[in-house]
């Protein structure tokens, strides 16, 4: 897994830290970004997409720390620098092995909660693509997160996905042209959330495809994928508003 | 039509003004609220729900003026203090008479644009319930609005609704339990917006009913209707963000 870059903006002084943790014998490597000053911080778990840690996840993690959150980019794989073929295999294992995905997510959340600078009563989870599933599963299993936010998330549930009531506030944001967010899948999600009496929101960006937050996606020329600057900016603002609603003002 | 109340908050100094205007021989009465200072203001047309001008529309109009917008509560009826039975009849006429709804909306927008304190290049339209249809029709007919925002809007199109391309940015926000925002109606809306290549967004508040912005609705005990404080607060914030994106900072 690549390391977080040091912040390049002048005047920002973030603390970056590699946090090793484990889940069922697998060594995982998270990357923590802390704002200047430290203290009893509200904290955000950042769950990467299928491709693993990349520039986009790095910059989101830094941006959250710049807003005053303890931001922790988790590691779902325990493998450094995965190829697309490897990531497909890793995702399939996480989705098909009951408990595997949610246990890795819980291990990351526990590592975050144990940090001395973190207020464990003010934690949220966000995620991109596969990471949206990670954030949702943490909500489904009753983890102590106040909110779960997904950017172009998957809506298919991992095998063995729990049926508990959901207390975390859920916000999923998808493009209407995202092949992983069909009307059927969105309707299934809505029915599940409603049956669990969750506080949920689903936002649709018209004509937008999958991975709309990542400028690097366009180079791959994948059908149904595409960066969208408006959806990127608007979805980030909606996430910040929900974080502030759920975790309080960061500083 | 009832008059706008004077603002009660200390320190706010808004100018309130009744603006008479006409459409095809029908006299209409709008209510304008201006922030202190005046000038070349960004402006927001506020379209009432089926019940006509009410406390909720009044307070929204004042709130927009307090944010720095010239806010103009239009009049779709030309009738003062309508009963529920009368409003049903008025809505039916507006929806069934080709051109009637959009012409009244255009007359209101023209009255707003002609005001000396308004910058006609920075106008948006918002609306509640029927008013959401009004804002959408202004977008559909190519009016010079930068954005159209609907709170628990209707998705049925008025007879003769135009098929032009849409340049205004469209944001509709509905409750998932709103009987006027069924999956079918939302899918029709999405298909229409996509076919017109609009910049559109559709936000769903889980488990929320119709008229979620109006605390007074609960007293009527209508099935499928209901106030929701979270959806109210969040939808207002999303509207403010889009107004700022489209019209620039108000002051």
How would you sum up this structure in a few lines?
The structure is a homodimer of 251-residue chains. Chain A has helices spanning 55-66, 84-96, 100-113, 130-140, 183-195, 229-247; strands spanning 15-23, 26-34, 41-47, 70-73, 118-128, 147-151, 169-175, 200-205.
Write the layout of secondary structure elements.
The structure is a homodimer of 251-residue chains.
Chain A: E1 15-23, E2 26-34, E3 41-47, H1 55-66, E4 70-73, H2 84-96, H3 100-113, E5 118-128, H4 130-140, E6 147-151, E7 169-175, H5 183-195, E8 200-205, H6 229-247
Parallel strand pairs in A: 3-4, 3-5, 5-6, 6-7, 7-8
Antiparallel strand pairs in A: 1-2, 2-4
Helix pairs in contact in A: 3-4
Overview of the molecule:
The structure is a homodimer of 251-residue chains. Helix content of chain A is 33%, strand content 23%. Chain A is an alpha/beta fold and 251 residues long. The first copy, chain A, is globular, with a radius of gyration of 17 Å. In chain A, strands 1-2-4-3-5-6-7-8 form an 8-stranded mixed beta sheet, with helices on both faces. The mean pLDDT of chain A is 94. Chain A binds chain B through residues 170, 176-177, 183, 187, 190, 193-194, 197-207, 230, 234, 237-238, 241, 245, and chain B through 170, 176-177, 183, 187, 190, 193-194, 197-207, 230, 234, 237-238, 241, 245.
Shape label of chain A: globular
Q: Please trace the helix and strand order of chain A, writing H or E for each element.
A: EEEHEHHEHEEHEH
Overall mean pLDDT of chain A stands at 94
- Give the assembly state of these chains: homodimer
Largest interface: which pair? A-B, 25 and 25 residues
Strand order of the largest sheet of chain A: 1-2-4-3-5-6-7-8
Task: Provide the helix percentage of chain A.
Answer: 25-40%
Give the low-confidence spans of chain A: none
Tally of helical segments of chain A: 6
- Counting helices, strands and paired strands, the structural category of chain A is alpha/beta
Give the end-to-end Cα distance of chain A, rounded to a whole number of Å. 30 Å
